[in-house]
């Protein structure tokens, strides 16, 4: 579990907590050998926390192994074992939470008080105490995740029958510009989620029951309680941040819509009153528009940031070498094997490249076991959950990532993202298990992405991935656009998923309105709509991994703001002067030291304190996002001048603000 952050159910554990590896000076406490959850007579709060830490660490590897197996070998047996392990874990956790009540108001160290408060936040899947319901919950969770991982869209009959999984359907959205082919791929993937609907509705009932037993109003309130501030204040913070960055998103939306209409025609390039058609955005969930570069590149050929092209060429070189080793006259089978070999090789090369950035900051090389146990590419002989994740298996250095890497830019940056999790695990493995977690979950998501921001054109050039960019204004706008298509396009998506789940958990979105509410939120925040009606016979939220995987999503919204703050601070540490967007801190020891210091703190103190140590501020703030994108925002405003921007969603209008001068933030 580690992943406490990623893993679906894993996330279970995860919610907030993590435990990771290493160290933990296990107290030579005899209690550590008692069976988990057994109350010890005369134990004070500090001793209780020490025991929970030890028991947690002791039981954790079994849970992570079961999860790892069920994600990398999907079948009925691994699903059963994962559900069972989860059941044991959540049962134990409930026991600890109940016992912790004994210590309320009793003397204890500040660390113990924090650890006890964290206990209730250790899972994103609060479980009912009733053993039958607990078991039902873990079975549903494992089944939903398996359904997602196995998901395939099949067409045709008999020998013409063809089934495509998510990766192949995503390839269509990435590369095809055929309206109908994209619509088919998009609809096809969304069909896999239809059977999850009853499971999800029951899941909601069960986690709500668990959350109420722990004293929360519902599971969404529990999720919002993990931020060292009252749940309501946290929700208000996310509104505040969104209002800061919304004008920038709306400008990008307006620009993208214009270009889509140029490509597909006025009618097909939008839906209704100015909404973007969901299937045309180059991404299954419209969360990252980077694949529309061909359509959205501001100045054709200014600068050359064709990372995907460079990676494909690397693959071709690897393939050439693999074929050469097989000698002339390789048959179809040999050719196939050579292709697999080259796919695995380029995936490892991409990962080594990412590791190199971290090592340049003074962080350790990944352990040998990482390279041996990681899943780099999609296996052919079984179903797996391809959604990328990073794992701390034992809190002692057995770290892994699980991806189905392809040689393209998106996967390349995702590797940097995942290694951010891995380096966080390794850095906080020295903390007690209950503090082995991100300062908050947004921090965990922001580490690797901070590095991605430092992958400037000059860095990419220095590692030989792209050619010299030149210094023109046009190249700058192109580089900013490339980053905005990943980072700015994401912002409303990062918010809307949990707006939906918060509503589902608090009952304001009833099961018979799941899909309608989903698309209302998509329209309101993202300005996106499906091209064809999506009634309640569909369950479109289930087509996004984190819903069946039950991974809270507001973390990614926070991360997309925080990472710019982290980046700015590390740039300052590296002595950067000049515009923020020009900074890379590759190879800078001082930036590395500062980063590592933050990582090592884990969740041992409120995140506000950790943020202050790094950035000087206790607030998450969108100012750095706006500062970074100031040139692009100005450019977008010029482009959009005279256009009517914004969109209408069933009565409410989202409009771009009047063209105010861009506001670089200090
Ligand atoms: O799920 C992820 C990571 C694993 S934590 C691959 N991300 C979100 C997503 O894919 O939806 C990273 C960005 C947003
Ligand atoms: Zn992540």
TrEMBL record:
Q: Where is the composition biased (Pro residues)?
A: 656-666
The signal peptide stretch is 1-23
Which sites are catalytic?
418 (proton acceptor 2), 418 (proton acceptor 1), 546 (proton donor 2), 546 (proton donor 1)
Q: Do you know which InterPro entries this protein is assigned to?
A: Peptidase_M2
Task: Return the annotated region ranges for Disordered.
Answer: 641-666
Record: residues binding chloride: 227, 555
GO biological process terms, semicolon-separated? proteolysis
Q: What's a single GO MF annotation on this record?
A: peptidyl-dipeptidase activity
The record lists its disulfide bonds as 386-404, 571-583
Q: Which CDD domains match?
A: M2_ACE (cd06461)
Identify the residues that bind Zn(2+) 2.
417, 421, 445
Q: Where does Zn(2+) 1 bind?
A: 417, 421, 445
GO cellular component terms, semicolon-separated: membrane
What keyword terms does UniProt attach to this protein? Answer: Disulfide bond, Glycoprotein, Metal-binding, Signal, Zinc
**PROSITE patterns recorded for this chain?**
PEPTIDASE_M2 (PS52011), PROKAR_LIPOPROTEIN (PS51257)
Question: What is the designated name of this protein?
Answer: Peptidase M20
């Amino acid at each position: 579990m580690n992943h406490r952050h990623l893993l679906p159910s894993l996330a279970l554990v995860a919610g907030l907590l993590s435990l990771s590896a290493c160290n933990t000076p296990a107290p030579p406490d005899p209690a550590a050998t008692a069976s988990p959850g057994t109350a010890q007579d005369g134990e004070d709060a500090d001793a209780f926390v020490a025991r929970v830490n030890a028991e947690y660490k002791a039981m954790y590897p079994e849970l992570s192994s079961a999860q790892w197996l069920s994600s990398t070998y999907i079948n009925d047996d691994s699903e059963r074992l994962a559900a069972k392990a989860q059941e044991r874990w959540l049962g134990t956790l409930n026991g600890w939470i109940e016992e912790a009540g004994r210590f309320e108001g009793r003397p204890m160290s500040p660390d113990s008080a924090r650890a006890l408060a964290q206990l209730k936040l250790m899972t994103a899947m609060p479980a009912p105490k009733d053993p039958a319901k607990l078991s039902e919950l873990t079975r549903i969770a494992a089944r939903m995740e398996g359904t997602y991982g196995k998901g395939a869209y099949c067409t045709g009959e008999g020998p013409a029958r063809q089934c495509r999984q998510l990766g192949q359907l995503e390839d269509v959205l990435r590369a095809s510009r055929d309206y109908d082919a994209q619509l088919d791929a998009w609809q096809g993937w969304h069909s896999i989620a239809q059977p999850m609907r009853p499971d999800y509705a029951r899941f909601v009932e069960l986690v709500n029951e668990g959350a109420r037993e722990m004293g929360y109003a519902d599971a969404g309130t529990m999720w919002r309680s993990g931020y060292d501030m009252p749940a309501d204040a946290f929700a208000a913070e996310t509104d505040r941040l969104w209002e800061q960055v919304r004008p920038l998103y709306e400008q990008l939306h307006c620009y993208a819509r214009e270009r889509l209409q140029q490509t597909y025609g006025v009618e097909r390039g939008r839906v209704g009153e100015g909404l973007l058609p969901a299937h045309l955005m180059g991404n299954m969930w419209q969360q990252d528009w980077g694949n529309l570069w061909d359509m959205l590149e501001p100045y054709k050929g200014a600068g050359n940031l064709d990372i995907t092209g460079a990676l494909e060429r690397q693959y071709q070189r690897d393939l050439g070498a693999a074929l050469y080793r097989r000698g002339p006259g390789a048959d179809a089978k040999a050719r196939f094997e050579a292709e697999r070999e080259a796919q695995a090789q380029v995936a490892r090369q991409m990962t080594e490249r990412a590791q190199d950035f971290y090592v340049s900051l003074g962080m350790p090389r990944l352990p040998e076991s990482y390279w041996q146990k990681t899943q780099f590419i999609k296996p052919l002989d079984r179903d797996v959950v391809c959604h990328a994740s990073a794992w701390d298996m034992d809190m002692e250095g057995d770290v892994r990532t699980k991806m189905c890497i392809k040689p393209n830019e998106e996967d390349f940056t995702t590797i940097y993202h995942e290694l951010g999790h891995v380096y966080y695990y390794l850095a906080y493995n020295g903390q007690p298990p209950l503090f082995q977690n991100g300062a908050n979950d947004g921090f965990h998501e922001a580490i690797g992405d901070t590095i991605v921001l430092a992958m400037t054109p000059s860095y990419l050039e220095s590692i030989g991935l792209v050619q010299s960019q030149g210094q023109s204004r046009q190249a700058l706008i192109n580089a900013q656009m490339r980053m905005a298509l990943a980072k700015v396009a994401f912002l409303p998506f990062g918010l809307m998923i949990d707006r939906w789940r918060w509503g589902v958990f608090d009952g304001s979105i009833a099961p018979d309105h799941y899909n309608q509410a989903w698309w209302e939120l998509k329209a309101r925040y993202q300005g996106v709509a499906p091209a064809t009606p999506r009634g309640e016979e569909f369950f479109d939220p289930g087509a996004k991994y984190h819903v069946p995987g039950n991974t809270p999503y507001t973390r990614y919204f926070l991360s997309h703001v925080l990472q710019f703050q982290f980046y700015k601070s590390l740039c300052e540490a590296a002595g950067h002067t000049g515009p923020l967007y020009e900074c890379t801190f590759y190879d800078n020891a001082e930036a590395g030291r500062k980063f590592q210091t933050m990582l090592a703190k884990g969740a041992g103190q409120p995140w506000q304190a950790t943020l202050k140590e790094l950035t000087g501020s206790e607030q998450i703030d969108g100012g750095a996002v706006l500062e970074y994108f100031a040139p692009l925002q100005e450019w977008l405003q010029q482009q959009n001048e005279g256009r009517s921007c914004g969109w209408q969603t069933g009565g409410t209008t989202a409009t771009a603000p009047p063209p105010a001068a861009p506001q670089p933030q200090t």
